[in-house]
Design goal:
InterPro entries: LSM_dom_sf (IPR010920), LSMD1_Sm (IPR034110), Sm_dom_euk/arc (IPR001163), snRNP_SmB/NAA38-like (IPR050914). The structure is a single chain. The two termini are 39 Å apart. It contains two helices and eight strands; from the N terminus they run E-E-H-E-E-E-H-E-E-E. The model is unreliable at 1-6 and 108-112 (pLDDT under 50). With 121 residues, it is mainly β. The chain has a single domain (28-120), classed as SH3 type barrels (Roll). It is elongated.
């Protein structure tokens, strides 16, 4: 059980007083809820140099850096359709190099990755 405690001190004695027996649920903004819905989902990221990275969305930060796990690199859309890729593993993509991000609309692991499976965000 989560409990919020208030500590009061007088001289050398410390008293703990139970203020409430639960912590209220955090109310997240619409944007944060959207980001949370993308966690552990397949994501495609287009970079300024033309490369395409496809992997599992792990996290982001205030500077729009993105971390993808089990990430594959494709050099262009043609490679994405033919499946010609290079496994990178865990990658951090600086936000300044990102043109666009796309999420997988199918959300199934059995479906092969190609450009028609993604919708632009």
């Amino acid at each position: 059980m989560d409990m919020l405690l208030k500590m009061e001190t007088d001289n050398q004695n410390v008293q703990k007083t139970q203020v409430c027996n639960y912590l209220p649920e955090r109310v997240h903004s619409k944007g944060r809820r959207k980001l949370m819905s993308w966690l552990n989902q397949q994501m495609k990221v287009n970079l300024i140099d033309g490369r395409i990275l496809v992997g599992t969305f792990v996290c982001t930060d205030k500077d729009a850096h993105i971390i993808l796990s089990t990430c594959y690199e494709y050099f262009n859309e043609k490679d994405l359709d033919t499946g010609e890729s290079r496994l990178l593993g865990l990658v951090m993509i600086p936000g300044r190099h990102i043109i666009s991000i796309h999420t997988d609309v199918q959300q199934t692991n059995e479906q092969p990755i190609n450009s028609s499976n993604f919708e632009e965000i």
